[in-house]
Amino acid sequence: MEAVAVAAAVGVLLLAGAGGAAGDEAREAAAVRALVARLLGPGPAADFSVSVERALAAKPGLDTYSLGGGGAARVRVRGSTGVAAAAGLHRYLRDFCGCHVAWSGSQLRLPRPLPAVPGELTEATPNRYRYYQNVCTQSYSFVWWDWARWEREIDWMALNGINLALAWSGQEAIWQRVYLALGLTQAEINEFFTGPAFLAWGRMGNLHTWDGPLPPSWHIKQLYLQHRVLDQMRSFGMTPVLPAFAGHVPEAVTRVFPQVNVTKMGSWGHFNCSYSCSFLLAPEDPIFPIIGSLFLRELIKEFGTDHIYGADTFNEMQPPSSEPSYLAAATTAVYEAMTAGCVAAPRLALPAPAAVLGARPDQGCAGSCAPWPPPGSGPVC
């Protein structure tokens, strides 16, 4: 009953109630001080004092920063969260020092003495969440990044006030555990996964097999990388959006469960069915919540959770039915599998999850990220 009540809530309220990876003030302040040292170097970093104070926010959940000092004194950077403090630092560097921090490079020639902030400059965001990325970005840009490049990206995210972002690395290692537990062979799993550069479309059910298999070393390195990414994001008070089960399964699932109700989807992107035409579980099939909860349980056991998950069921694909009742059932099945996974997570009393769902079908609505709608409300657009 509790899961049904939560699923009926309006999407934005679900996100607002989902909590997040706030962390404590001291940890977040330490993360921002380390960012300052990485960005400016230890010497210039000594001219900045950083503190995180939750009470700085006039309204809970609305990040706020305050700037002061400079001139003959240290520059004071205060924030209600680590992300807020980092955004305040960026404001000072950009508007008072004429500096620039970008993906392609940075200009960080600090004037001497450091400019004074007249009085106390305080700024608050009107938005609880500032979201970043879509699932394709993982393959467009991130797939070959090492930790040094990810650390730089997370610093950039904090400086730009981003506090909600996808963190999807390493999920194939989790899926491998789930598929083996379900009875698939290693050969069947190897045949299913795409190669690294195409994982985004494998995860969304557009592709399988193409440029695979993934070597064992890939899984090990991605697990390690994901742990570091999550630790760093959480240290700033960001909320990582973890992956969830969207309904796509390897064809080999039909061998293990001959009675399973699946639909063979159409081809995608001019690939033939050797690499496309994925299998989608019917939302009412009893194996749907089993697979979804097994995945989420393994994921949470490995990485912990911040209670917000993402799933893309119909990316650039025509759903089996355009009836609102079917689309509502499909998204409800995704959410209920999340809820079952949270309940099953070992030794963890987890709140109901919030969902970030992607839908970009060939016909109808076009969008990359939408908060959870009430069941029965029609397609996610």
TrEMBL record:
InterPro entries per the UniProt record, alphabetical: Hex-like_dom2, NAGLU, NAGLU_N, NAGLU_tim-barrel
Alpha-N-acetylglucosaminidase N-terminal domain span: 30-116
Signal peptide as annotated in the record: 1-23
GO molecular function, one term: hydrolase activity
Residue intervals of the Alpha-N-acetylglucosaminidase tim-barrel domain: 130-340
Keyword annotations: Hydrolase, Signal
Pfam hit, one: NAGLU
Keyword Hydrolase: yes
Name of the protein in its database record: NAGLU isoform 2
